[in-house]
Fold this protein.
Amino acid sequence: MIRAFGIISAVKEIFLQSFSVSQIQKRFENKYATQVRESLIQINLFRMISICSIITVFELIALPYYTIDAYLNNGRKLCYINFFSQLFLLVVSICFAVKGMHVYQNKTENYIKSPHLYLIYYFCVSVGCLFYIYSDIKSGVPSATIYYLALILSTIPIFTLKEALFFIILNTAGVLGILLHNGREAFSQNIHLLFILLASWLVMFQLRTYMYRIMHQKFKLEEINKTLDLQTKIDPLTNLPNRRALNEYIKEKLPNWKAQNKKVMVLMLDIDNFKNYNDTFSHLDGDDCLNAVAQAIIRKLNEHEKIEYILARTGGEEFIAILENWETEEEILKICVALNRAVENMHLVSGQGSCHQYVTISIGCSIYDPTDVRNEGENPINAQLRLADYELYNAKKEGKNRVSFKGRILN
């Protein structure tokens, strides 16, 4: 009694696990529905191409062998249902292999455009196998095709629930109809075909659940890794990119700058007498000051829609900006002067001993020119950063709250 109860519990657990995809989706709050669907289509296309290749090779060998054996060795007539079923599977597999390779080579953008390609293929495989099973049973021969059909549909594609139910109904109804059509004796002799199908459906649902779980966990892990990677590239105080993010930005953009011979402006910005501000007020007030200055710079840069930029906090009170799509040097210098005014016009009272009444910034400027032979190397922007830092030193030396470019000081 206890043993029977244990078996029943085990069977119940199998069924619960088999239909637990909805629980997996609920657990992950359907966050990855689109990614999972696209991934399923991609995996199914690749697996479809693989099974097409296997069936093509198999039928290229089996079809001539069957034809020769039917006519020469046994002296019996060719069974046209078997012959055309094999020929049908061969032609279908070749056609879908070619189409599948074309879609697969076009990568992700076309995966979602062909969501039904693999479904049509497995439908054709099911129909071909069912005709072959019908021919075998009608001839009184035990059909081994059911094993191929069950193996293909249960282990290769990853169906959604609706797709799985469609193929279950199609193949179960097909086999049942074949058995009933061939009489009671054929039905009793081949009833095991239905149990083979039943076992294959259980395997299919188990593998389906396993793959859904793996994919959801994969996308969850990717999301966590992206979040962690983003956190390592963001300054936690100002939410600006940090030096690592700036370096990656430069590495990504540099080939385009070189290819287009695009000049970019490099700005080094520094808050004047920031230590005095912290000493006079507090480090918490200093944090607020940093945030306020960063937001003032961003607001002013955003006023120039055509200019593309990145602003990063690279030190205690130091910022670096890289500006693209400007037209003249004078245009950039006017923007830099406007940045000075924007910070000063916040009227944040500076600390004791500062040069100015309100918090100000100094700016050093340099230009990266891809056509300049001196700007060669793995990261030529570093040379411009050093030059901008030198210009920043000049702006500080000349009284702060100034812009320095090529030795020219603007107040």
Remarks:
- The chain has a mean pLDDT of 85.
- The first strand starts at residue 264 and ends at 271.
